[in-house]
Design goal:
Two copies of one chain form a homodimer. Chain A is an alpha+beta fold. Chain A is built from five helices and three strands; from the N terminus they run H-H-E-H-H-E-E-H. The longest helix of chain A is centred in the C-terminal third of the chain and has 31 residues. The N and C termini of chain A lie far apart (44 Å). Chains A, B: Pfam families: HTH_20.
Chain lengths: 105, 105
């Protein structure tokens, strides 16, 4: 299931509006209307993007009275980062092995 | 244009077959048929995935005779990783500020 999680994570991050929302929420929680503010976008469009972020596990929301507050889930960001770091490490190891081989010959 | 680059990068990584191709290429270059091997997939489907990876700047290919060799572009992986790390740092800074605030009160 980890794979499907990464599918949803990277898919959610492939959109500039959703990345801007993540950037905003990394600076602190925000209500849906605060989140909507910088975008020339309808409320349903913002809610749609939020839904994709929630399904990816990147954002959680909670409702108090009439205000829905959105929060970042840093663990989800970390998962995507770790996958990328893992690939880079693999590639760097490969480079090191090549370097050793060149020194030996 | 950096934004569009991240769109393409994250979109390319949102597919499990393409991530498996990236994982394979991080262990070293491969021909298209070597890359195709682990997948129960037609050649056109594999070539289609490769195209998405190339457009995202994650993979470059070069042809010698009849063999097309694919290579990873580690800088593209690094770009995606850096964006994620930047968000995490922002979030951790926010946490630190909150911690300081709590200590002060």
């Amino acid at each position: 299931m980890v794979n499907h999680r990464l599918d949803r994570l990277f898919h959610a991050l492939a959109d500039p509006t959703r990345r801007a929302m993540v950037e905003r929420l990394c600076r602190g929680p925000a209500s849906v209307s605060e989140l909507k503010e910088p975008f020339a976008m309808s409320l349903p469009a913002v809610v749609g993007h939020l839904k994709v972020l929630e399904e990816a596990g990147l954002v959680t929301t909670s409702k108090q009275g009439r205000t829905r507050t959105c929060q970042i889930e840093p663990n989800a960001l970390r998962q995507a980062e770790q996958w990328l770091a893992g690939q880079r490490t693999e590639w760097e190891r490969k480079l090191d092995r090549l370097g050793t081989l060149l020194e030996e010959t």
